[in-house]
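User: For a teaching handout, I'd like to show students what a predicted protein-ligand complex looks like in token form. I'll give you the sequence and the SMILES for pyridoxal-5'-phosphate. Please answer with just the structure.
Assistant: Understood, here is the input followed by the structure.
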Amino acid sequence: MPGMDDRASRLHVAARMASIAPFEVMEIQTLARRLEAGGRDVIHLEIGEPDFTTPAPVVAAAKRALDETPMFYTSALGIPALREAISRFYGERYGLAVPAERIVVTAGSSAALLLAFGVLLDAGDEVLLADPGYPCNRHFVHALGGVPRLVPVGERSRYQITADLAAAAWTPRTRIAMAASPSNPTGTMVAPDEIARLATLARERGGTLLVDEIYHGLTYGFDARSALESGDDVFVINSFSKYFQMTGWRLGWLVAPAAYVREVEKLAQNLYISASTLAQHAALAAFSPESIAILEARRGELAARRDFLLPALEALGFRIPVKPEGAFYIYADCSRLAADSFAFAREVLERAGVAITPGKDFGIHQPERHIRIAYTQPVARLEEAVLRLGAFLAERT
Ligand SMILES: Cc1ncc(COP(=O)(O)O)c(C=O)c1O
């Protein structure tokens, strides 16, 4: 009888798995849960989802759909009514005509990213990604045999990729330049004219611009413009997760150039058949005036949280050289306070009971100098977090 060790030694894990890193934030979260199990109060500012629940009209629509609609698979492109509703949303919010035929409903924008990379990348093709940036992108690219090329970005370019940076990093193997606006982890945006320049660059070099607009709707004081205005050849992803506050429903969408939609459809059919039928029917109610009123009020609340936290963190000694315009993140330089942001995040958790994410999750460009703070808690909890951080920092000096 082979023992457990023999069986384990026969495990064969694909080589690509060596390039797929876990989220460091999970380590912080595990530690936080352990402290909580021991009776400590932890303020969670590490998690990338707001504390708001799904708007009631969406939940009601889901309940009705369970009673009235058979929960069969849908088309891999999504139910026509939802594709039409998203198309109308582009008209109403952005003044853009985006035909429903170009909109593919997906299992979260995670699936949209996988589909976009899947139809565009050959093995060895390069994707330009801002560093710091959303970590899953580079892992998706790796998983598909592509090569993520991390472009270091800092305060000079508002922590964003620009056409000049992309042009300098472009090689004959570059297939995609990607931007996320607003960005995770920095909350900063790419100006519309810069997006237009990126689209032109990609076009001239025979590549594609892919823009992640998942944090649209969560911009404070203004509405974002979509990269879709920069040409019909741009790929855009978006989601019901963030603005619509439906993270766990796993629903998003991809807007692809018309000529690619059939390829996207084939890949979606094979990868996961279709997005959740229940979530799709529920999401139809996300665009109702009642839902939008709820979402806009919450957007105001997030703006108030940002406006409280930014100056409070600066007063504590964090450096935030570029004001985040959207999402619910502040990417702060903590180098005046600590030499290693990972050790700092652990110390802050253990001693102050505040969970934050170390820069390590978001790339290799100066991660030790940065932390990400998610303002996904009410202002009263943020005030408490600032008090605790202040006391902790005062004690250390
Ligand atoms: C920048 C960015 N893109 C994509 C995603 C994926 O989100 P989902 O699959 O829930 O749409 C996230 C999630 O945090 C994100 O921050």
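For the handout, you might add this sentence: The first strand starts at residue 43 and ends at 44.
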